[in-house]
Design brief:
5-stranded parallel beta sheet; OB fold (Dihydrolipoamide Acetyltransferase, E2P); Rossmann fold; alpha/beta; 5-stranded antiparallel beta sheet; 2 domains; elongated
Length: 243
């Protein structure tokens, strides 16, 4: 699929390099415009239906994060292109799909575009659809420790698990359990049983997902109405569960 994209970058030379790379190596990218600052970028975003925004971090009269704050909820993916590696964590928190360092590696640029393309194709095929897992009904049980023994839980009753430092909150259909195990422990324990790590803080039962919503990073809605954000790095893995 073609990706409708814009470049938001204050340096004319950098815009030209990226524009030429995209034309030569990423033909699926349809460039809709270019902006040299936050305000110009905001106008382009509001006036176009976009799939992808290539975004420099430091610009006059604001930065990339200011721009994304002004946009609010969004349907497009973002690829940060910057000379500074210390913005990586902020970019991740802003639900960036990819982080490219200048000078741009052509291989990394192609990889970033391919990654976004796969995500958008999957999202578009599932748009306005209540998702149904393609894997079989999950069955089985796990035990969680108690002071005087252990409790048996049905996996199918677990909606999601949430990290709480070295503890994990297990949210069931009608109750919550706090367990002195890390989320990584439960990710390993429930691996292969229809549970997906969608965020650094969340592990969800895929069978409990009733809806997927596009947005900053995408989100899932569970059968109890709980909405959980999906990290861009986890989105591809999650969408692979659905047909």
């Amino acid at each position: 699929m073609n990706l409708r994209a814009i470049i938001v970058e204050d340096e004319e030379n950098s815009r030209e390099i990226l524009r030429n790379y995209l034309a030569k190596y990423c033909p699926k990218v349809q460039l809709m415009g270019e902006a040299a600052n936050v305000e110009e970028g905001l106008v382009l975003i509001r006036n176009n239906e976009l799939d992808l925004v290539f975004l420099d971090v430091e610009m006059p009269y604001g930065n990339a994060f200011d721009l994304l704050d002004k946009v609010g909820d969004r349907q497009f993916e973002t690829v940060f292109v910057t000379a500074y590696n210390h913005y990586a964590i902020d970019a991740l928190n802003a639900h960036a799909s990819y982080y490219l360092l200048k000078p741009i590696s052509i291989d990394n640029l192609i990889e970033a575009v391919d990654y976004v393309s796969e995500i958008k194709e999957k999202e578009n095929s599932l748009q306005q659809t209540v998702l149904r897992p393609v894997n079989a009904q999950v069955t089985g049980k796990i035990t969680i420790p108690l002071q005087n023994g252990f409790e048996v839980l049905k996996m199918e009753d677990i909606l999601y698990c949430q990290a709480d430092d070295n503890y994990t909150n297990i949210f069931l259909k009608d109750s919550k359990k706090l367990v002195s195990k890390t989320l990584k422990y439960f990710e390993d324990t429930l691996s292969g049983n229809g549970f997906a790590r969608v965020h650094k803080s969340y592990l969800v039962n895929v069978n409990a997902i009733t809806e997927y919503r596009k947005g900053k990073g995408g989100s899932v809605v569970l059968s109890n109405g709980k909405q959980i954000m999906v990290s861009p790095s986890r989105k591809k893995e999650l969408l692979a569960y659905f047909g």
